[in-house]
């Protein structure tokens, strides 16, 4: 009886998620079928930059692995599988052109519901201002900072199946103009029941078209415009699988694979693996197809466990070809309740 009721809940939740996704897709063209034909057409590219050194080290194949600190940035349904009832996460990214990117999240999990608050910030630094007649710079500078603030909610439909949603406010400041938008992420996580085999699905950054506020600049020889052009949000959908192979009592191998479909780029496969040694040291490698150059990623992590908490620090890097190598460092702290101390040493 309980199993039948759980199956009905899963079917009902799946139907609701599919209905919501279909409605949004119909209304807002969430995932255009041919992303490679729309390269460079979406706004808010900051929202597509991966978050977390561990996901990056796994080649961004993370939609089924998201059960830890960066969970809300990949699949909010994973909030119901985090290590502790409360989790704290920090990430710093050294991006191209001396751009600094920082993310933070605080998560809470109960028996049936999970919640999270998250934030991200891209600091561009001072950018030299150029014009048609001053290509070397006018001596003046401007900034192109970007921010995102999100709230996530997850629900455990059964002991194996959870769904999650994130609502977020995005703002891009480019000199005197600002682009603002409210966007959403939607996620599903299902434990198949064979070992720790997990299936994940997420749609990220869907919402209305984005448009800068204010009046466009007036330039000699050009027809004046009354408003800026609108551009779609950088929506992408991911489907993935993850499984941990127990090689010995102290060694485990996590394998993960994602299929990623962005609305403004070519589709790609993402593959990753993580070798866990004595539940202390984790070595990672990954690769993403569909790129003209780059695609390799790697990293490592160290996890310390005590009776009262789990603390982990991770480093990851990814090759972006002509843009160079991007570096990520993350820290995660999970205080543990007494009931959780028996499960915090599981393979991650």
Give a description of the structure.
The protein has helices at 2-28, 53-57; strands at 86-94, 100-109, 113-123, 127-128, 141-142, 146-156, 161-174, 177-191, 198-206, 236-246, 251-262, 268-277, 281-288, 296-305, 309-319, 325-335. With 348 residues, it is mainly beta. It has one domain (2-342): monomeric porin ompg (Porin), CATH 2.40.160. A hairpin with a 2-residue loop joins strand 7 (161-174) and strand 8.
CATH class: Mainly Beta
What is the number of helices?
2
Q: What name is given to the CATH topology?
A: Porin
Write out the CATH superfamily name. monomeric porin ompg
How far the N terminus sits from the C terminus, by CA atoms, comes to 33 Å
How does the helix and strand content classify structurally? mainly beta
Number of domains: 1
> The biggest beta sheet, please?
14 strands, antiparallel, barrel
The count of DSSP E runs of length 2 or more, i.e. the number of strands, is 16
The chain-level mean pLDDT equals 86
Shape: globular
What is the gyration radius calculated from CA atoms?
A: 21 Å
Side by side, the strands of the main sheet go 1-2-3-6-7-8-9-10-11-12-13-14-15-16
- Low-pLDDT stretches are 10-31
Helix amount, in percent?
A: under 10%
Q: So, CATH architecture?
A: Beta Barrel
Strand content: 35-45%
Task: Write a concise keyword list for the protein shown above.
about 350 residues; Porin; single chain; two-stranded antiparallel sheet; 14-stranded antiparallel β-barrel; globular; 2 helices; mainly beta
């Amino acid at each position: 009886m309980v199993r039948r009721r759980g199956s009905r809940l899963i079917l009902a939740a799946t139907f609701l998620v599919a209905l919501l996704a279909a409605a949004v897709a119909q209304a807002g063209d969430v995932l255009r079928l041919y992303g490679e034909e729309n390269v460079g057409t979406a706004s808010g590219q900051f929202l597509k930059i991966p978050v977390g050194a561990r996901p990056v080290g796994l080649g961004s194949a993370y939609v089924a692995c998201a059960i830890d600190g960066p969970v809300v940035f990949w699949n909010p349904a994973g909030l119901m599988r985090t290590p502790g009832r409360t989790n704290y996460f920090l990430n710093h990214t050294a991006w191209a052109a001396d751009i600094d990117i920082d993310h933070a999240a605080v998560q809470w999990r109960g028996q049936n519901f999970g919640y999270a608050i998250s934030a991200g910030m891209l600091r561009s630094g001072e950018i030299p201002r150029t014009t048609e007649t001053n290509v070397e710079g006018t001596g003046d500078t401007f900034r192109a900072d970007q921010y995102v603030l999100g709230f996530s909610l997850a629900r455990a439909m059964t002991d194996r199946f959870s769904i999650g949603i994130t609502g977020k406010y995005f703002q891009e400041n480019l000199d005197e103009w600002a682009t603002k938008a409210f966007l959403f992420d939607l996620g599903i996580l299902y434990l198949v029941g064979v070992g720790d085999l997990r299936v994940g699905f997420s749609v990220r950054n869907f919402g209305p078209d984005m448009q800068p506020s204010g009046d466009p600049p007036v330039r000699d020889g050009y027809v004046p415009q009354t408003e800026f052009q609108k551009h779609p949000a950088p929506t992408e959908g991911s489907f993935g699988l993850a499984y941990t192979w127990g090689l010995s009592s102290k060694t485990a191998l996590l394998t993960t694979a994602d299929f990623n479909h962005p609305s403004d780029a070519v589709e790609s496969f993402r593959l990753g693996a993580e070798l866990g040694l004595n539940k202390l040291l984790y070595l990672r490698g990954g690769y993403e197809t569909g790129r003209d150059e780059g695609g390799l990623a790697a990293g490592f992590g160290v996890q310390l466990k005590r009776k009262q908490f789990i603390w982990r620090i991770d480093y990851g890097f990814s090759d972006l070809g002509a843009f160079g190598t991007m570096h990520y460092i993350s820290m995660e702290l999970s205080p543990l309740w007494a009931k959780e101390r028996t499960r915090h040493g599981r393979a991650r």
